Every structure is written in C-alpha cells, then in structure tokens.
Amino acid sequence: MIGRPNAPVPDLRVSAPETARLVAIVLLAVMMCSASWLFGWPDWVARGLIAVGLTLVAVAFLMALQAKVRLRARAMATDLLTGFIEKDASPSFVADDDGIIHARNAAAGRRFADAEKETLSGTLRAVLANPSAVLFRLQSRARIDGAAQEDVITRRGHVRLAVHQMQGGSFLWRVEDIAERISAGRSVESIPIPMMTVGRTDAVLFMNEAARALIGGRVKSLDRVFVDLPVRSGHINTMTTANGPIQVLVVENTRTQGRNELYFLKTEEDGNTGAGTSFVDLPVPFLKVAPTGEVLSVNKLALGLLGTPNCKDMKLGQLMEGLGRPMSDWLRDTADGLAPNKSEFLRLSRRDKEVFVQVTLSRAVEDGATVLIAVLNDATELKTLEAQFVQSQKMQAIGQLAGGVAHDFNNLLTAISGHCDLLLLRHDQGDQDYGDLIQIHENANRAAALVSQLLAFSRKQTLLPEVLDLRDTLSDLTHLLNRLVGEKVTLTLSHDPVMRSIRADKRQLEQVLMNLVVNARDAMPQGGEIRIETEVVSLDRPIERNRAKVPAGDWVTVKVQDEGVGIDPDKIQKVFEPFYTTKRTGEGTGLGLSTAYGIVKQTGGYIFVDSTKGAGTEFVLYFPVHKAQTETSKSAAPKVDTSAPKHGEGVVLLVEDEAPVRAFASRALRLRGYTVLEAESAEDALRTLEDPGLSVDVFVTDVVMPGMDGPSWVREALKTRPKTRVVFVSGYAEGAFGESEPNVPNSVFLPKPFSLNQLTETVHEQLN
C-alpha cells in the first residue's frame, strides 16, 4: 500500500530535485573553478570559469532551499488533511487518477476489512454491483466542478458516494450510509410486517428482517419469490419460501425513483389470515368483511379514511354508497368467486366532507368460513377531477342548448308579443278582450324572462352596462327586497363610507341580488336577519378560491349573509349548477344561483359561497372597480339637430327569414308611417338594392339566416350605400356570433323579443 505508514494520507506530489543532480552541479562547479589552475590558461579565462562555477553553486543552493520549503509545506498540509479525515465517522479514501488507493482512514479500514484492495473499484465491489461506472462518472464531474456526489441504492440500503479533487491530482472519496426511514419515523427493519423494496426491473433491492424470516433468506429478484408475475396488489399471491409455497396478501406502495414497496400479509393454506397486529399496522387501509356485509375488523388507516372511531355492528353498505347495484349482490358474487377482481368507486357516508374510495374485494378463508378483504384507496382527487370535467361538459352542452332554444323561442315570443301589441292598439281598457290581451302579453314577458335566465346561465345574454354606485342601486331596490323577505325576516344594509363605482347592467345586478335574498329568506323559515354589506377591498396579491383566481387590484364586494339552516358540505359545490335545487317540486326551478353566477361572470366578477350547517350562509360577490377615463369631456351634450326626421319619415329595408316576425315588424313600422321594403333573405335584399334609384335610410336585418348572414350582406350593401344606418336583431345575444359578430359602422343591436315601441323607437333613434 502506498502512503505514509502512520497516516491515512499519502505524500503530496512535490517536485523535489534529485540528489544526484545537485551533486553533479556542485562537482561541475568545482571542476570549472580548478581547471584554470591545472591547465595554466590566461587570467581572463580563469576568472570566467570561476564566475560560472560559483554561479552553479549558488543555483544548487537555491534549489535545495526551495525543496526544503516545499517539503515543509507538504508536511503541514498532510497533517491538516490527516486530522480532517482520520476522525471522520464515514469511510474515506485518498486515491489517484487511476483509482489506486494511497490511504484510507480508520472507518474505511473497519468497514471494508474483508474487501481490502489496492484499487477503490475493487474495494467498493462489496457494496456496489458495478462500482467502476459510478466512480468514473463522479470523478469526471469532480474534474469539472471540483466535487460531486451521488446516492446509490444497494442491497444494504442507500449509500451516498462523494468525491473532492485535491491539489496534485489526487481525489478524496467518502462513503456514507443513509438510513431509510418510513413516515412513522421507525426503521423498516423494525416493522413486524414482511416488506421488500423492488426496482424497475423487479430486482429486490432491500428486504427487512420479517421478510427474510418469512422467505428463508435473501433473494435478488421477484421471480425467485413469486410463482406468477406481475404481482397483483390487493390480491392473494403464491410465494415461494424455504418451507414451500404459501399464500400471502400483497399490498404495493409506490415510492420515488422507480421503486415499489411490497408488504405481505401471510395466510395459511386454508385461508387463515395472519396475526391481528400485522393487519392493524398494515400501511394500507384494509377492511375484513363477512359475505353478508358485516365489518369484522378494520385497521387504523381504514378508520381514519372512513372518519369513524370504530365499525362495530356496522355493515359495509352503511359506510359507503354509490355502487349502482345492491351491495349484497356484489359481496355475495365475490364470496362465491363469480365477480371479476375489478375495483369499484364508492362514496363514503361521511357528513363532514365528500370522500371517494376505490374498493378492491378479495376472497379468503378463515376458520373454514369465507371472508372478504377490502382494500381501500383514496380516490377523492380522481373523482373530483372527473366531476369537474363532467360538469364543464354539462355546462357547455346546456349553454349551447340554451343559446339554440333562445333563438327559436325568442322568434316565437317576438311574433306573439308583437301581434299582441298590434291588437292592444285596437282595444282600450273598456273592451272585454282587453284583459285577455294583457294576460297574453304578461305571460309572453314571463316566458321571455325564463329565456333570459337560460341565456344568463350560459353567459350569452345581452348586457347594457352602466356606471353604478352600489349604494344607490341597493337604495332603489330596498323597498322591493323588503316586500320579498316578508315580516319575519329583517333586512339590514351596511355600506362602505368610501364607495367606488362599478360598471354593470343595473337590471341584471338587481336580479342577482333578488335571487340571493330570496334564497336567504327561504333558508330561514322561522325568520331571522339578512345582512347585505358592501365594501371596497384592495388585493395586493391574487387570491384563489374554489378553483377560481381573483387577480390583484381594487374590487367592490357585496356580501349577502343569512342565519338560516346552511348548506351541507357535500352539496355546497353544486349550488351553482343549473336545475340543482334543494327545494320541493314547484318551489324553484334551480336556475336562480346559476343565473346569478352567469351574470356575475359576464360582468367580469366572481361569486363565492361559504356555509356552516345550522349557522347560516354567506355569498360574496367581487366586482372590479370602474376606472374612469383619464380624459373626461365636460362639454355639454351635442344638441339634437332640429331637422332630424320624425316618425314616419324614412325608408326601411326589413330582412327577416321568420315570416311571423317579419309580418309583425312590417306592420309595426308602417303604423308609425315608415315605408317598408320586405325581404326574406340576404340574397333578396341585395337584389332589391340593385336598383340605383332606390333610396333606403335604415336596414333592419336579422343576424342569423339561411345562406348569407346579416353582417355579411350588410357589409356588401354598404360598399355602395355607406351612409345607411343599420339595426341588427337576433334571438341570440349580442357578441355571441363568433366570427360573424357585427362590426359595422352606424349600427345598433336590438335583441329579441322586442315590442312594437322598442322596434319603432330604435329605428327612429337611428334616423335621428
């Protein structure tokens, strides 16, 4: 072995001159100094030789002095390094570039006493299967970075191999054992349950003492242990041991770095399970169930997952639900061996929160009787993601349905309410048919309100936003809200003294507040207090709630609080779903909160709900603060042109594919004195406009029609008639047309259903 015998550190590489070379230089100097005396050369030659000889002597002296200084420095560095690694508890080696060991400390001598080799690769072969590759990889990184380390999994556990490059080209290596720990903080060796750690290639990396005792020694791969591969987690597998094959229940726990932990619960040939202590401490939720459904035993993790202190005198059907068929059939088929070994997703019967589990049933025999082993796996996150996906698909489908229904329904309502308006023009209040016409008109408006709710849910209704002060809005609404809540309920309003404005549709915002107040009233059948609070909040950072993210900035919040019965935790996530209601049939449509959600989201805000069962519910609405334009014009409103046309002055080209709507609109405009040209399609309208002598003041056109749509034909017509005004009408919402959204100058949008006055006033304003 190379190195000083009394130190674990080798001599550092110091380039010291050879003694023979120093002696040769001195002899050469002596010869040059004495040559002039021996040969009688001239004085100038003798003096030159003497000078050269003395110079060589001085050089030799300096070389010897420098070597002494270097050796002394080497000795000091060696002593420091010796003191550093000699008392290190981890095995340390000093090796050269070729891996030859120059020295080792006492810990290395004790750890690798049986594998003492001249090379580091040969020494570490006792713990590493292929140490050469690991050493080469670390040494290459150390040449670049100066140091490197790597954690290696061995059959004894984790080993951390570290290397530091030293001056002179040597390398300092340290081998450190890292003890594996489980979550409970105990070494896996102390677990009474047999377990082993398996790598990606089914190589057995570790076995605890219980596993070695069960199998009869160490094994290197799973095919030496199990008859059939792959191992089925949660099922009975046949294991080969020194005493013959046995039946074990296997539970697999996935760990990092491609490793899996296998736990074994021994069963006898007749199916008897092992010790109860092992069953209770097993790190996977387990239930032992009778074929009739009674819970026979349960381990600690299963109790925690079920959220109950014990399962005494309880059946499996009382703990979980949602199988889709009788629980007794599933248990009986599994006990008879008729059911396939597939997992079922069930919902636990917990009141505090919603938890889903994946349940795998396996058949076993205990004391001659059949029992079932249920392995539970928490599937709440999986089912939550699945529910979110299904909900998004449902919301999208209902939104598309709402838009399509609204278009066709609004055309019908336009014709019904429009012709009703025409009839009302010919009947006064004393007419016996007047009351019937009013009933038709009011019910048509109710139907229109229902369609508006559908559009609000799908966020496709047309909003008319304006700058609002919530204090004024609530003040105007207070009288109506007090009538809604009744005498048993007290309505209290509280406003922020420094209120800021928002931009929203006042009518729709009032609808949201009324829906929330009505729900709060219904939640307090015995009476109570409903409190509405407004506040201005400034968020320094975004807040995340219920999968929504409220950006940082200034917001106006509206809180609607009640003292009602509250909402169950498992139902609070469904309150904004359309048609979901806890009220009895006939008491609600289930569209109130979904409508409020759609209106708030379309306004650019957020709505959240918090509820405590038996203590009340709080809805919080966030609206962005309206930022006024920096350049506000204080000039007076433009004066109305005194020469503006009056009703009846102008030519209107009406384009509508629905004949009843076209008939009503045509008659309504003619009653106001307008000249109306009708067309049932965009193509007919363009053919009508081919006459250069025809003068048209306003286009009134539907947006969605067979063939060419409204915006397309209007753009074509405006190329030759650029000053013509346009009124777009549609059963869809404004802005819901995608690529065909109207982007036409001098145009307005009139949603269906519209009344006679709305149509004629809109046309008049366009002409004005």
TrEMBL record:
Span of domain Response regulatory: 651-767
Catalysed conversion reaction: ATP + protein L-histidine = ADP + protein N-phospho-L-histidine
Alphabetic keyword roster: Kinase, Membrane, Phosphoprotein, Transferase, Transmembrane, Transmembrane helix
Protein EC: 2.7.13.3
Residues where 4-aspartylphosphate is found: D702
InterPro entries: CheY-like_superfamily, HATPase_C_sf, HATPase_dom, His_kinase_dom, HisK_dim/P_dom, HisK_dim/P_sf, Sig_transdc_His_kin-like_C, Sig_transdc_resp-reg_receiver
Cytoplasm recorded as keyword: no
GO MF terms, alphabetically ordered: kinase activity
Key word Manganese present: no
Gene3D superfamilies according to UniProt: 1.10.287.130, 3.40.50.2300, Histidine kinase-like ATPase, C-terminal domain
Regions crossing the membrane: 20-39, 45-65
All copies of domain Histidine kinase, residue ranges: 404-627
Source species, domain of life: Bacteria
PANTHER family, A to Z: SENSOR HISTIDINE KINASE, TWO-COMPONENT SENSOR PPRA
Name the UniProt record assigns to this protein: histidine kinase
Species whose genome carries this gene: Parasedimentitalea denitrificans
Lineage: Bacteria, Pseudomonadati, Pseudomonadota, Alphaproteobacteria, Rhodobacterales
